[in-house]
Amino acid sequence: xxxxxxxxxxLMGLLFKPHPWxxxxxxxxxxxxxxxxxEIVPTDTVKFEIDKSSGYLKLDxxxxxxxxxxxxxxxxxxxxxxxxxxxxxNARTGRGDIVGDGDPLDICVLTEKEVMHGDIIxxxxxxxxxxxxxxxxxxxxxxxxxxNDAVYGEYEDLENAPYxxxxxxxxxxxxxxxxxxxxxxxxxxxxxxxxxxxxVIERSMSDxxxxxxALSSLLNSVAQPREMAKI
Length: 231
Prior knowledge:
The protein has a single domain, classed as Inorganic Pyrophosphatase, CATH 3.90.80. 27% of the residues lie in helices and 26% in strands. It has five helices and ten strands, in the order αββββαβββββαβαα.
């Protein structure tokens, strides 16, 4: 593409492992089709999450109870839950105190295949989402299907997906942080469709650009030849 340092991008891709949040492109077809980074699979007995500084997958904590994530779970690269995501959540819920959680946008990917480990990239098709609020932070969970999946790939909108599948996701996210004696602070206010999911994703992409700028622009500035100072 014009004005982008394509040779430098390719060279960096060959020499260095890209940061899963900042170095992987969300995809040219976003929000209809996305690149996703998967941290957790349903067979995991510990919770993994990305280390934001290094980009490596780290072990966050063991799963203390018998609830396992019922889908592939991770985030959408180059997204950020900031002011625009929070603004939409406030508008939809009638509240005014919600802020973004400062993380990349979470995504659950449905597939009939057994994926044995995380730390992978895949293509997914968003079909809806859960409007989750953790305390006063917007913590949306986009629900998607694996691109070309033999079973779930036919679902174009969340209303087409089996109700028990959505209920399992709701139950997981409302209980996975529970510990005895603690007060529940998370809630799911809405289960929304594909159109709403697209808006949440687009807002999170806009929040990312506002927070971090575009990767290609940063590389452009580094790659531009500088005029040598006159002696």
